[in-house]
Input
Amino acid sequence: MILVMGPSGDPMVEGVADCLEEMGVRFGVVFIHDIPNTIRLRLAQPWEEGALLFPDGLTLGLSDVQSIYHRVGFANYEVAEDYGEDEVRYVNQECQAALGAWLNTAPQLIVNRPVASGTNASKPYQISLIKEYGFKVPETLVTNLPGSAREFYERHQRRVIYKSISYTRSIVQKMGEEDLERLENLKNCPLQLQSFVEGTDVRVHVVGDRGVFASLINSEASDYRYDKKSEIVPFDLGQELEQRCIDLADGLGLTLAGIDLRITPEDEVFCFEVNPSPAFSWYQDRTEQPITETLCELLIDADGA
Amino acid sequence: MGKPTVLLYGHPDHPGLQILHSELAARARQRVAFVTHDQFPTRAGLFLDQDGEKSVLIPDGQEPIAVPDLVSVCLDGYYIDGAPLSEFPPEDVDYIQTESWATLIAFFHIVSQRSLVANHVVLRDHLSNRWSELSYLASFDLPVPRVLVTSEPDEVEAFADEVESVVFKPVSALGAIYRELDQKAFDEIEKITTAPVHFEEGPSGEVVRCVVVGPGVITIPQDAEPPEEILANCLAACANLDLHLAEVTLRRKGDRWLASGIQGFISAEMLEEPAILGPAVSMLERGQA
Output
């Protein structure tokens, strides 16, 4: 059986479930808000004794799971109405730990293992890995020294952006003169600065070795994700660049990846980030690329435990 | 080029780091800098470029440490201390800690491309909780204690019937102390329906430690003689995560051997053994595993 796990209402979870249903394969959906009481998880050593326990006494042995696509970590778990703040935090923490432990160690195909998402927890760490796959990366400085940040800004002719260092979502901002007045704040918290790269954004979704789907984004904003007027169309990367994207995703331990590229007017290819849990439906809806279908084929063809 | 430096990074009261610091300082073959975890980001400055060539760590009250001067780094017991951030509201503290932690991950990775780092934090993500730790050891064909993670009281009762004794703790807490599943705990077993709990076969038998320093392994007691295959698998498990300093705990009961834990550092108790301290310090001074 294939499992699809995540928050209810998540477009990727719903899309994959709908696609598997159309394909007529055996699958189940586990919503995060049903764990740990409505649906209970049992992990055991030896592994074969682990199971998911559903209402009405149904039991699914973890060894009977062929493959899993999940979007765990984007929603809260099942809590009672009278739980206080500390109890809610405890339940979420323990359920996330248990689910994460299972998904990291299960022998089946897991899209994606939480531990592989770890590179995204530090963007400068991730880009140092990205470089190894032949991609250019923007010149980057991470610092809590105001003078160093100012010098970097001047050295790059005041064409610098700043963004978060961790997975904390931030809107990429162009640094301006008004930001120089705030640099003293860096003494309390480091910042990531990057030289601005002129070019066109291309988002690439890699699905194992089954498919590479690139979308070109036309946008005026520094961060197209927040530009409602952005236009997205399919884009041909060419075989060599497609293979590099496949190798990059594979090298980071990701079966499904969303890779952010920017291609300069001189055809240099910069890579900014690899997203381990991409919201691919947003791009699929606009380009009609068969990302969901390709992912489902991968899940169906997996060997299981 | 400045002074070749061995950097120790972690909690100021970390007994293992203190032992290493004392020995390295006494031998005085390299500059030794102990930078405590509470300094970054409010009291230690950091300039981190993407290949480390110009990167510098400026500790409070010490000479700056240029990354190209680092011979080796030894780190453990660190986190982003919230105490220096007490003037900020909770959401800002959370943000600062998250951003600073991400910075340290990048810093130690960049350093590890140039110098020996024992042991880089990212690699230990694989050992982030007890279940993951034991599953990791089992993946190297090491026998491990029986484990049950559940929120079902009936399952706990059945498990307790199958093993001699049971201990338990939260799933998320790697370092938390186990509680024994005694009658008092059993009487409150219904509480586990709130969230899954980690239950484990209670420890028994003689403790044997496999201490890994670089490519070598030393067993304590030295006459313990675990089977060759178990020793080799312990070493492989550590090497797979680039753990230059590590400890695998074995338990022996008669002919039965179990691997009951792997730590990404060496305990103070083991570092007090000359057969371990010497090689560990030499490795850090040479900057080679």
Q: What stands out?
A: Chain B touches chain A through 57 residues (CB under 8 Å). The mean pLDDT of chain B is 93. The first strand of chain B starts at residue 5 and ends at 10. The radius of gyration of chain B is 21 Å.
